[in-house]
Write a structure and sequence with these properties.
five-stranded parallel sheet; Rossmann fold; alpha/beta; elongated; four-stranded mixed sheet
Length: about 325
Protein backbone atom coordinates (compact mmCIF):
# COMPACT_ATOMS: atom_id res chain seq x y z
CA UNK A 1 0.00 0.00 0.00
CA UNK A 2 1.18 3.50 -0.79
CA UNK A 3 2.56 5.08 2.44
CA UNK A 4 0.48 8.19 1.74
CA UNK A 5 -2.74 6.18 1.71
CA UNK A 6 -1.72 4.30 4.83
CA UNK A 7 -0.90 7.53 6.65
CA UNK A 8 -4.18 9.17 5.60
CA UNK A 9 -6.17 6.21 6.86
CA UNK A 10 -4.32 6.33 10.14
CA UNK A 11 -5.10 10.02 10.62
CA UNK A 12 -8.79 9.47 9.89
CA UNK A 13 -8.88 6.54 12.32
CA UNK A 14 -7.27 8.67 15.04
CA UNK A 15 -9.80 11.44 14.53
CA UNK A 16 -12.64 8.92 14.67
CA UNK A 17 -11.20 7.64 17.94
CA UNK A 18 -11.22 11.19 19.32
CA UNK A 19 -14.90 11.54 18.46
CA UNK A 20 -15.65 8.21 20.15
CA UNK A 21 -13.86 9.46 23.23
CA UNK A 22 -16.08 12.54 23.37
CA UNK A 23 -19.18 10.34 23.26
CA UNK A 24 -18.04 8.66 26.47
CA UNK A 25 -17.94 12.05 28.23
CA UNK A 26 -21.56 12.92 27.47
CA UNK A 27 -23.45 12.90 30.77
CA UNK A 28 -26.32 14.55 32.65
CA UNK A 29 -24.76 17.97 32.09
CA UNK A 30 -25.52 17.54 28.39
CA UNK A 31 -29.18 16.89 29.24
CA UNK A 32 -29.31 20.01 31.41
CA UNK A 33 -27.75 22.16 28.68
CA UNK A 34 -30.29 20.95 26.09
CA UNK A 35 -33.10 21.86 28.50
CA UNK A 36 -31.57 25.31 28.99
CA UNK A 37 -31.48 25.92 25.24
CA UNK A 38 -35.02 24.64 24.73
CA UNK A 39 -36.23 27.08 27.39
CA UNK A 40 -34.16 29.96 26.05
CA UNK A 41 -35.90 33.21 25.27
CA UNK A 42 -33.00 34.57 23.25
CA UNK A 43 -30.30 33.14 21.00
CA UNK A 44 -27.44 30.71 21.27
CA UNK A 45 -24.35 32.85 20.73
CA UNK A 46 -21.29 30.79 19.86
CA UNK A 47 -17.71 31.96 20.17
CA UNK A 48 -14.20 30.65 19.78
CA UNK A 49 -10.79 31.76 18.57
CA UNK A 50 -8.86 30.44 15.59
CA UNK A 51 -9.89 26.99 14.38
CA UNK A 52 -12.24 26.60 17.35
CA UNK A 53 -13.93 29.78 16.15
CA UNK A 54 -14.49 28.28 12.71
CA UNK A 55 -16.13 25.28 14.37
CA UNK A 56 -18.21 27.63 16.53
CA UNK A 57 -19.46 29.35 13.36
CA UNK A 58 -20.52 26.03 11.90
CA UNK A 59 -22.30 24.99 15.10
CA UNK A 60 -24.15 28.31 15.09
CA UNK A 61 -25.21 27.69 11.50
CA UNK A 62 -26.52 24.23 12.45
CA UNK A 63 -28.55 25.67 15.32
CA UNK A 64 -30.02 28.35 13.04
CA UNK A 65 -31.00 25.89 10.32
CA UNK A 66 -32.68 23.52 12.79
CA UNK A 67 -34.95 25.96 14.59
CA UNK A 68 -32.76 27.63 17.22
CA UNK A 69 -31.86 31.29 16.61
CA UNK A 70 -28.09 31.63 16.77
CA UNK A 71 -25.22 33.94 15.86
CA UNK A 72 -21.43 33.73 16.03
CA UNK A 73 -19.56 36.33 18.07
CA UNK A 74 -15.84 36.75 17.34
CA UNK A 75 -14.12 37.09 20.73
CA UNK A 76 -11.56 39.64 19.55
CA UNK A 77 -14.21 41.83 17.92
CA UNK A 78 -16.49 41.42 20.94
CA UNK A 79 -14.24 43.43 23.24
CA UNK A 80 -14.11 46.21 20.66
CA UNK A 81 -17.82 46.89 20.53
CA UNK A 82 -19.50 43.71 19.31
CA UNK A 83 -20.51 42.72 22.84
CA UNK A 84 -23.64 44.69 22.03
CA UNK A 85 -24.75 41.69 20.00
CA UNK A 86 -25.34 39.64 23.14
CA UNK A 87 -28.12 40.44 25.59
CA UNK A 88 -30.03 39.08 28.56
CA UNK A 89 -31.94 35.99 27.50
CA UNK A 90 -29.12 34.73 25.29
CA UNK A 91 -26.74 31.89 26.06
CA UNK A 92 -23.01 31.91 25.25
CA UNK A 93 -21.53 28.65 23.95
CA UNK A 94 -17.76 29.11 24.21
CA UNK A 95 -15.29 26.76 22.51
CA UNK A 96 -11.67 26.36 23.53
CA UNK A 97 -9.69 23.14 23.56
CA UNK A 98 -7.41 24.21 26.41
CA UNK A 99 -9.95 26.35 28.19
CA UNK A 100 -7.22 28.97 28.57
CA UNK A 101 -7.72 31.01 25.38
CA UNK A 102 -7.18 34.61 26.44
CA UNK A 103 -9.58 36.21 23.97
CA UNK A 104 -12.40 33.89 25.05
CA UNK A 105 -11.72 34.37 28.78
CA UNK A 106 -12.01 38.15 28.34
CA UNK A 107 -15.67 37.67 27.49
CA UNK A 108 -16.59 35.96 30.76
CA UNK A 109 -16.93 39.06 32.95
CA UNK A 110 -18.83 41.31 30.51
CA UNK A 111 -21.14 38.48 29.45
CA UNK A 112 -22.02 37.48 32.99
CA UNK A 113 -22.60 41.14 33.82
CA UNK A 114 -25.63 41.19 31.51
CA UNK A 115 -27.01 37.97 32.96
CA UNK A 116 -26.01 35.61 30.16
CA UNK A 117 -25.24 32.00 31.04
CA UNK A 118 -22.01 30.47 29.71
CA UNK A 119 -21.65 26.91 28.46
CA UNK A 120 -18.08 25.80 27.79
CA UNK A 121 -16.93 23.15 25.35
CA UNK A 122 -13.39 22.37 26.45
CA UNK A 123 -11.14 19.52 27.57
CA UNK A 124 -11.74 19.88 31.28
CA UNK A 125 -14.05 21.67 33.67
CA UNK A 126 -10.94 22.39 35.74
CA UNK A 127 -9.64 24.80 33.07
CA UNK A 128 -10.08 28.55 33.54
CA UNK A 129 -13.02 28.59 31.12
CA UNK A 130 -14.54 25.51 32.74
CA UNK A 131 -14.34 27.05 36.22
CA UNK A 132 -16.05 30.26 35.14
CA UNK A 133 -18.71 28.65 32.97
CA UNK A 134 -22.14 27.77 34.32
CA UNK A 135 -21.80 24.32 32.79
CA UNK A 136 -19.04 22.51 30.93
CA UNK A 137 -19.38 19.94 28.19
CA UNK A 138 -16.08 18.13 28.50
CA UNK A 139 -14.17 16.81 25.51
CA UNK A 140 -11.69 14.89 27.61
CA UNK A 141 -8.00 14.85 26.84
CA UNK A 142 -7.41 14.93 23.10
CA UNK A 143 -4.13 14.65 21.24
CA UNK A 144 -3.94 16.24 17.83
CA UNK A 145 -2.97 14.07 14.89
CA UNK A 146 -0.33 14.49 12.22
CA UNK A 147 3.43 14.14 12.40
CA UNK A 148 4.00 16.95 14.88
CA UNK A 149 0.58 16.90 16.58
CA UNK A 150 0.40 20.70 16.50
CA UNK A 151 -2.35 21.71 14.09
CA UNK A 152 -5.89 21.64 15.54
CA UNK A 153 -7.35 18.51 14.00
CA UNK A 154 -8.71 15.83 16.32
CA UNK A 155 -9.85 18.48 18.79
CA UNK A 156 -11.79 20.48 16.23
CA UNK A 157 -13.54 17.44 14.79
CA UNK A 158 -14.46 16.42 18.35
CA UNK A 159 -15.86 19.90 19.08
CA UNK A 160 -17.87 19.75 15.88
CA UNK A 161 -19.33 16.35 16.72
CA UNK A 162 -20.34 17.48 20.21
CA UNK A 163 -21.82 20.72 18.86
CA UNK A 164 -23.76 18.84 16.19
CA UNK A 165 -25.10 16.44 18.81
CA UNK A 166 -26.25 19.36 20.93
CA UNK A 167 -27.96 21.16 18.05
CA UNK A 168 -29.65 18.03 16.72
CA UNK A 169 -30.92 16.88 20.11
CA UNK A 170 -32.37 20.36 20.62
CA UNK A 171 -33.96 20.05 17.17
CA UNK A 172 -35.64 16.83 18.30
CA UNK A 173 -36.84 18.59 21.44
CA UNK A 174 -38.51 21.25 19.30
CA UNK A 175 -40.15 18.60 17.08
CA UNK A 176 -38.58 20.50 14.22
CA UNK A 177 -39.48 18.34 11.23
CA UNK A 178 -39.17 18.27 7.45
CA UNK A 179 -41.81 20.96 6.91
CA UNK A 180 -40.00 23.36 9.24
CA UNK A 181 -36.70 22.44 7.62
CA UNK A 182 -38.13 23.23 4.19
CA UNK A 183 -39.03 26.77 5.29
CA UNK A 184 -35.42 27.40 6.28
CA UNK A 185 -33.92 25.78 3.17
CA UNK A 186 -35.85 27.12 0.16
CA UNK A 187 -32.85 27.15 -2.17
CA UNK A 188 -30.54 24.60 -3.74
CA UNK A 189 -30.88 20.84 -3.90
CA UNK A 190 -32.11 20.57 -0.33
CA UNK A 191 -34.90 23.06 -0.94
CA UNK A 192 -36.02 21.21 -4.02
CA UNK A 193 -36.02 17.87 -2.20
CA UNK A 194 -38.30 19.35 0.47
CA UNK A 195 -40.82 20.91 -1.90
CA UNK A 196 -44.42 19.77 -1.55
CA UNK A 197 -46.64 18.44 -4.33
CA UNK A 198 -48.96 21.43 -3.89
CA UNK A 199 -46.10 23.73 -4.89
CA UNK A 200 -45.55 21.85 -8.15
CA UNK A 201 -48.91 20.52 -9.27
CA UNK A 202 -50.75 21.92 -12.27
CA UNK A 203 -53.96 23.72 -11.34
CA UNK A 204 -56.76 25.74 -12.92
CA UNK A 205 -56.45 25.88 -16.72
CA UNK A 206 -53.31 23.73 -16.61
CA UNK A 207 -55.17 20.93 -14.82
CA UNK A 208 -57.06 18.93 -17.50
CA UNK A 209 -60.35 17.47 -16.38
CA UNK A 210 -63.58 16.34 -17.98
CA UNK A 211 -66.93 15.42 -16.52
CA UNK A 212 -68.66 12.09 -16.73
CA UNK A 213 -70.81 11.67 -19.80
CA UNK A 214 -68.17 13.04 -22.13
CA UNK A 215 -67.10 11.13 -25.22
CA UNK A 216 -63.60 9.93 -25.90
CA UNK A 217 -63.28 12.53 -28.68
CA UNK A 218 -64.10 15.32 -26.21
CA UNK A 219 -61.59 13.85 -23.79
CA UNK A 220 -58.84 13.89 -26.42
CA UNK A 221 -59.62 17.51 -27.18
CA UNK A 222 -59.17 18.45 -23.52
CA UNK A 223 -55.88 16.55 -23.36
CA UNK A 224 -54.47 18.22 -26.47
CA UNK A 225 -55.68 21.77 -25.85
CA UNK A 226 -54.73 22.06 -22.17
CA UNK A 227 -51.72 24.32 -21.59
CA UNK A 228 -48.55 22.25 -21.31
CA UNK A 229 -50.21 19.30 -23.07
CA UNK A 230 -49.82 16.87 -20.16
CA UNK A 231 -51.10 13.88 -22.14
CA UNK A 232 -53.65 12.89 -19.53
CA UNK A 233 -56.90 14.07 -17.99
CA UNK A 234 -58.84 13.43 -14.84
CA UNK A 235 -62.49 12.45 -14.97
CA UNK A 236 -64.72 14.01 -12.30
CA UNK A 237 -68.38 13.91 -11.36
CA UNK A 238 -70.60 16.99 -11.11
CA UNK A 239 -69.27 17.69 -7.59
CA UNK A 240 -65.62 17.65 -8.63
CA UNK A 241 -64.86 14.25 -7.11
CA UNK A 242 -62.27 12.19 -8.97
CA UNK A 243 -63.75 9.02 -10.45
CA UNK A 244 -61.30 8.19 -13.23
CA UNK A 245 -58.16 8.99 -15.20
CA UNK A 246 -57.23 8.67 -18.86
CA UNK A 247 -53.81 9.00 -20.52
CA UNK A 248 -52.43 9.10 -24.04
CA UNK A 249 -51.00 5.64 -23.33
CA UNK A 250 -54.51 4.38 -22.69
CA UNK A 251 -55.58 5.96 -25.99
CA UNK A 252 -52.80 4.26 -27.96
CA UNK A 253 -53.66 0.88 -26.48
CA UNK A 254 -57.34 1.41 -27.23
CA UNK A 255 -56.75 2.39 -30.85
CA UNK A 256 -54.52 -0.64 -31.33
CA UNK A 257 -57.34 -2.99 -30.31
CA UNK A 258 -60.53 -1.12 -31.21
CA UNK A 259 -60.13 1.84 -33.59
CA UNK A 260 -63.90 2.56 -33.57
CA UNK A 261 -65.64 5.91 -33.66
CA UNK A 262 -64.09 8.14 -31.02
CA UNK A 263 -67.23 10.21 -30.80
CA UNK A 264 -69.36 7.22 -29.89
CA UNK A 265 -67.19 5.89 -27.07
CA UNK A 266 -68.09 7.11 -23.59
CA UNK A 267 -65.11 8.02 -21.38
CA UNK A 268 -66.51 5.99 -18.46
CA UNK A 269 -66.15 2.86 -20.57
CA UNK A 270 -62.40 3.28 -21.15
CA UNK A 271 -61.04 5.33 -18.28
CA UNK A 272 -58.95 4.00 -15.41
CA UNK A 273 -61.34 3.67 -12.48
CA UNK A 274 -60.20 4.33 -8.90
CA UNK A 275 -56.89 5.80 -10.12
CA UNK A 276 -53.88 6.25 -7.89
CA UNK A 277 -53.69 9.71 -6.36
CA UNK A 278 -51.26 11.68 -4.25
CA UNK A 279 -51.81 14.17 -1.44
CA UNK A 280 -50.92 17.84 -2.01
CA UNK A 281 -48.91 17.68 1.23
CA UNK A 282 -46.67 14.83 0.06
CA UNK A 283 -43.05 15.68 -0.65
CA UNK A 284 -41.94 15.95 -4.25
CA UNK A 285 -39.47 13.12 -3.69
CA UNK A 286 -42.32 10.85 -2.53
CA UNK A 287 -44.23 11.71 -5.68
CA UNK A 288 -41.28 10.91 -7.91
CA UNK A 289 -40.77 7.57 -6.17
CA UNK A 290 -44.46 6.74 -6.67
CA UNK A 291 -44.32 7.62 -10.37
CA UNK A 292 -41.22 5.49 -10.86
CA UNK A 293 -42.63 2.58 -8.88
CA UNK A 294 -45.74 2.33 -11.01
CA UNK A 295 -44.10 3.38 -14.29
CA UNK A 296 -46.44 6.31 -14.84
CA UNK A 297 -45.82 9.89 -15.96
CA UNK A 298 -48.81 11.68 -14.44
CA UNK A 299 -50.83 11.35 -11.28
CA UNK A 300 -53.91 13.28 -10.11
CA UNK A 301 -53.65 15.22 -6.86
CA UNK A 302 -56.67 14.83 -4.58
CA UNK A 303 -57.63 15.72 -1.03
CA UNK A 304 -58.81 13.34 1.67
CA UNK A 305 -62.35 13.49 0.25
CA UNK A 306 -61.05 12.52 -3.20
CA UNK A 307 -61.82 15.97 -4.58
CA UNK A 308 -59.55 16.76 -7.54
CA UNK A 309 -57.03 19.52 -6.81
CA UNK A 310 -54.51 19.26 -9.61
CA UNK A 311 -52.23 17.14 -11.76
CA UNK A 312 -48.58 16.27 -11.18
CA UNK A 313 -46.48 15.51 -14.25
CA UNK A 314 -43.10 13.80 -14.00
CA UNK A 315 -41.64 16.41 -16.32
CA UNK A 316 -42.35 19.12 -13.74
CA UNK A 317 -40.20 17.20 -11.26
CA UNK A 318 -37.41 16.55 -13.73
CA UNK A 319 -37.33 20.19 -14.84
CA UNK A 320 -36.53 21.17 -11.24
CA UNK A 321 -33.94 18.39 -11.00
CA UNK A 322 -35.83 16.68 -8.19
CA UNK A 323 -34.65 13.15 -7.66
Amino acid sequence: MDPCIQRARSIIAQEAEAVSGVAEHVNETFVHVTEMILGLGGRVVTTGMGKAGIIAEKISATFSSTGTPSIFLHPAEAVHGDLGRIAAGDLLLALSKSGETEEVLRLVGPVKAVGVSIIAITQSEDSALGRHADHTLELGRIEEVGRYRLAPSASTIAMLALGDALALIVQEGRSFGPEDFARYHPGGDLGRQLMKVKELMRTDERNPQIQTGATLLETIEVMTTTSGRPGATSVVDDKGALIGFFTDGDLRRLLATDPGSLSSINIEDVMITAPRTISPDAFATEALALLHKHHIDQIPVADQNNCLLGLLDVQDLLDLKIG
